[in-house]
Give the backbone structure.
Amino acid sequence: MSLRPARQEPIAGLYEPVTPAGHAVLDRLRGYLPLIRSTAAEHDRAGTFPTGTFDTFRKEGMLGATVPTELGGMGLDRLYDVAVAILAVAQADASTALALHMQFSRGLTLGYEWRHGGPAARALAERLLRAMVAGDAVVCSGIKDHHSAVTTLTPDGSGGWLLSGRKTLVSAGPVGTHFVINAQTDGTGEPPRLASPVVTRDNPGLSVLDNWDGLGMRASGTVDIVFDNCPIPASDVLMRDPVGARNDAALAGQTVSSIAMLAIYVGVAQAAYDLTVAALARRPEPPQAAAQTLVADAGSRLYALRATASTALATIDVLNTDTSMDPGERGRQMMRPFQHAKMMVNQLAPSIVSDCLTLVGGAAFTAGHPLARCYRDVRAGGFMQPYTYVDAVDFLSSQAFGIDRDNNYMSHWAIRARSQGSATAESPSKLLSR
Amino acid sequence: MSLRPARQEPIAGLYEPVTPAGHAVLDRLRGYLPLIRSTAAEHDRAGTFPTGTFDTFRKEGMLGATVPTELGGMGLDRLYDVAVAILAVAQADASTALALHMQFSRGLTLGYEWRHGGPAARALAERLLRAMVAGDAVVCSGIKDHHSAVTTLTPDGSGGWLLSGRKTLVSAGPVGTHFVINAQTDGTGEPPRLASPVVTRDNPGLSVLDNWDGLGMRASGTVDIVFDNCPIPASDVLMRDPVGARNDAALAGQTVSSIAMLAIYVGVAQAAYDLTVAALARRPEPPQAAAQTLVADAGSRLYALRATASTALATIDVLNTDTSMDPGERGRQMMRPFQHAKMMVNQLAPSIVSDCLTLVGGAAFTAGHPLARCYRDVRAGGFMQPYTYVDAVDFLSSQAFGIDRDNNYMSHWAIRARSQGSATAESPSKLLSR
Amino acid sequence: MSLRPARQEPIAGLYEPVTPAGHAVLDRLRGYLPLIRSTAAEHDRAGTFPTGTFDTFRKEGMLGATVPTELGGMGLDRLYDVAVAILAVAQADASTALALHMQFSRGLTLGYEWRHGGPAARALAERLLRAMVAGDAVVCSGIKDHHSAVTTLTPDGSGGWLLSGRKTLVSAGPVGTHFVINAQTDGTGEPPRLASPVVTRDNPGLSVLDNWDGLGMRASGTVDIVFDNCPIPASDVLMRDPVGARNDAALAGQTVSSIAMLAIYVGVAQAAYDLTVAALARRPEPPQAAAQTLVADAGSRLYALRATASTALATIDVLNTDTSMDPGERGRQMMRPFQHAKMMVNQLAPSIVSDCLTLVGGAAFTAGHPLARCYRDVRAGGFMQPYTYVDAVDFLSSQAFGIDRDNNYMSHWAIRARSQGSATAESPSKLLSR
Amino acid sequence: MSLRPARQEPIAGLYEPVTPAGHAVLDRLRGYLPLIRSTAAEHDRAGTFPTGTFDTFRKEGMLGATVPTELGGMGLDRLYDVAVAILAVAQADASTALALHMQFSRGLTLGYEWRHGGPAARALAERLLRAMVAGDAVVCSGIKDHHSAVTTLTPDGSGGWLLSGRKTLVSAGPVGTHFVINAQTDGTGEPPRLASPVVTRDNPGLSVLDNWDGLGMRASGTVDIVFDNCPIPASDVLMRDPVGARNDAALAGQTVSSIAMLAIYVGVAQAAYDLTVAALARRPEPPQAAAQTLVADAGSRLYALRATASTALATIDVLNTDTSMDPGERGRQMMRPFQHAKMMVNQLAPSIVSDCLTLVGGAAFTAGHPLARCYRDVRAGGFMQPYTYVDAVDFLSSQAFGIDRDNNYMSHWAIRARSQGSATAESPSKLLSR
């Protein structure tokens, strides 16, 4: 498959996909946009997940968009094109885009396991990927521990594991059928390592809470899930590095998992801008001086926003297919542009939305106004991992100055959790009540 | 009464009142802060007005804070001290501060009518002011017409008036007993003029809607009110300038009415900053590099925010007592620093709050988190009159370049409404249904 | 020639050329960088033009870099690659990059005349292009009239023209052999039109002043030139649109002429950043918190700067080869991304340089420090045509709101000059004395 | 003396002095402004010190402006009023304001020694102060060591000292008669302490270099001075704390010494703004949309700039006269608002000046244009001590989080210099050659 688009277009600005698979996915998604748009306000208000939309996605194979064609998926494998698709959805509803990104992202990372992993990982990945295509799997991801618990795998004594702990901020949780979780082993026998168990919805120890009530992204179903001695077969655990390994190779997967989320905030900013220009153009009076200035300024920031995100995506797509590099160096080379772009997205997108509120005026300050939703949703970008702003400064400045440090935020968290001796002693039933 | 504080303190930063009345009002308000703070979250969530708090205010004479002592009030007459009081309330709850400001502001402007108006105006003002002290009046203000109607006074044929139209964004509406409304006469007999009728809650043609559902300021009861041929005696109408009079003297009253609202946003920013620094100081790890930088930067912006608002308030207090100047020049000299300060407040306060969210992290992105409320509330500052950002640019640039124009935004609106021929023909019963 | 780079790299960030010609030109320019770098400070201080460098460029065929291969040039025809080359030079010296850009830009626009013009234009273009390759021509461009004169062509009565007037801000003037000038005909016989006469250095009426003394770009030889009845044969005049034609097709050529200049400011910012990071990395103490934060922030802005400029360049390169579009629409589609990118470049590049001064500290505040030069040079970006910030707001907001206006700034100037009735009556000898 | 101005004006905005002494000094300075203004451009270009202006200042007693009246001075003792005076001078020429501030600042700090010091300090201070009044003394201050040397006092064996080292950035050096230097003792006998020897111009070991060549502030004579075993009698040394004492009391004097310098940058911004508005108002066309917006925005930032600086000054004036507080707490309470204000000044003032260049256009980019000078001069604010931006973040964040550290930057430097073992071994004759 060629990087080159058919029509001599540059890979720039996230305006059009660059692969046939990208075009195919976008075309199909466009069919769902009226539905997504028409239910966005009510789900936002109620804080409910658009289960109907996701049922349709499941039934119509949409969740297999990024699954390799060999496994029956649509074969979308370019981050740039994933972003173009997510951007289109985000213009209709940012929450839906966030939840859908989760699936697209899982397709990409499980696809990587399927192509490059060991036999056990490949088998597990294939199973999940085929289920996504069949509409039998909505695969969620749980990264961040609730402050009260370190999510830990303990050997069950017969070759399997028991998983306990609590994850927070698991998007699409209400419809999730499988949860790929970031955990650590308890250190029995060998030093603790990072690991990714896959927990199915019907696991007897699993509880999916209904506790999402966000400032924004209210329809994203970003709930907590609690594990109370969930039995996990060894074949359902992807083993990672030992805690504290300082292996920057992990940054590649983290980048691939998350970078296309930037398109959510690009989409929100674009939607806000379009709506605002249209509203002002409808007014009988010509735009006042400051309205002209703000529209030109905000339009330029929107241009830079698209350019910056798209440049990072295009660069990382190239690195993503280059397996000849040193894995650590490749990880850092992927994470750096991602973080540079993320910093700018989280600065530019909210500023564009805020200027749009200024331009539209008081009407935009009512709870149900589309711009009010944009104002709340766009702020989520600053909280996405990796990294938060504060962590990104540590990463980027250490890269600039050549200072050695552990760049794997999951490893960081694991070490910090251990040093603070938190919560594994707490019984999960207690955790449930919070 | 002296401009000088007792303790040789400069009039700076809105840290302390500068008059005994200011101290007295602030001391009493401090007693209510625990109540205000404890109910803020639930009123914000439900979008309900803190009627209980205002009942207490009413019964305990708090609504007479700015009523002259001669009429039984507490005699607070310095805008600077009004702002200090409002700031304290806003740190607990911005919505309550906005609704309370409405009363304090009415005390000031009615006090001015009582001191400087003609006999009819003085009588009307005294009546309202005494009622505020007695706890019998919550006086609301209706400035902005709903887009569907020009609020108009038509002669009733026997010396009185009939009022029809609709006002939007009337804060404290749910508990309002009197509504001082910005209207225009219909031009029968003489050219249309601006006028301020006072409508009592029990007027047969008055409907107070329950339609506030804001992005922020959700507990401020900022509703619409509809007038359907409300009979208004001539004695209850304060007559202003003809529409289009270009009388900049009106800017003085507009400044006095609104400038202390800046303190709401200062209070929100201060509350966000305090909460954030406390949260970070509690963490076991030392603050990371970017956290140190953001705290220092945001703290400096907070300092500038307080300094800028307080400087404008102190300057305007001096002009407010100087009746020797040309009234138009005085109006412009008061409006300019107000607008300069307002522009900066609406830039600095939201940026401080946003940085606080960044520092506190994902927890701040839940709907009920105090910072999430700050994030929504602080954005209201851009929509307060006079002026919006876009209008402020027109005003300030014309002042800088010496370009003559009509600076009275109410007059502007009246002219525009007339030229667009809107809505007086629409029946109020139709208006009610929107 | 393919848009695709050899190594699967995306067209992104202005890191590498995308065509073989781009690589060839960059490789040769790299050989000159030590010379350029080593003389930059002294030319900056003295305000002198690097004549030696340009002599070398001329002799070694460098001025034919963008001349079509059919005419003996190096055939560089992609704006993206022109920008990559200019960026590399600007990292060594911004003034040299500005003067060299002038030549590269002339090669492109004259190449367009040679390919698409009428017979007379083609002959003129070919003559100049071959002279550039041979090292016999340094072709300068004069756009902006001195405030004292409207540069005007008057018929000489025998089929040729007489040119009088004065141009300001003509870069590389000290070594210019040919001057392509923006003028207007005097309206004798037919309505005035825009026209581009080519004036040779030896024209008896031409004076090249030695009057450049810039805040920055001090080695760019950006002088005034005065025309005192210069005889110009008809064959040396490229005729354009009538004044006031509102022909947006002209925007295409204006974009091609100027957009690669953005790379100058990208280069200055990159040079400042590299120098600063290196200086801090050499210090014995680890970087303080704010240094870490600023380096991460400035690095991210630098990333966005490169991404934004490169995205605009890549987009415009595609439009530049697409002659199937409506010419007016093509002009607007090229100018919009150029202006969006220019706005951001002029905001981001100076902010990066200023942060670098902060990081390096007091040493950077001495006149000869490389960062002090960057600080002065980078500010030039705001003054480059088209457009200034103020004009760009008019253009971009009218595009956003669909407001029709004359977007050709040269036409604007011509109309304004006429309406103010300036200066054609003034004798050029008077002009010389200013 | 009262804090209250005569005309009921608030202490706000640095528009008018608040004390009679302030009015007297400002009135006299106004008489010199035409001279200062008329020679500013030529001194800027040549990088020469306005010796003539300072000769006049000296002869006419201007250098005694802040000397107590008891010693024959004009008795200006309010920082606010010092700032008002410096601001007026800075509007004419920032370099002159910087050099004059040095004298005003010395009057204040020596006045403090005279009032509150021990007998030796009082005698020394009185001698210098009387000489300032008489026009016999121009007292300069040398704070920052050249990177090559730690300025050190070594006992001369007979009760006096020998001073060696090199100071950089000593403003008004060309006309300095006395140099109050920050040094440390060499640690013979007792631990090293900070000390302030006073070196007279005729000291045999003193060399005043002629090496200032700044990016801006080019007429400020900010040179290096070298000490080669200068004999200093014990009576000419003010002894301070031991190195590393962590005595925050020192912050009070550092604040008093430096805060009024903020007015320099306020003055530059005001001058740039005034000049720009006047230039635009003269143009025949009405201002374009972006010009209106920028003028309103920049005017608002200028308002905030004045408000922020004036609030810090007024606050610190109160603390300055309050000797009842804990000295360390007083030091911190003075330094905090100073640093908050300084951060904002260094952000707001350059942004105003840059917008002015944008508004005026290309003419402002010539070396001799007043705005070009403003652009270079205003950037100096970031390099003034205490603190630089990076150090200010350390100070302010540690104050916010309650983290204990050494806040005395001179002590910091002394410790760092010792730990890096620099340069005391180098012979001063070597130092001279750099």
Remarks:
- The radius of gyration of chain D is 21 Å.
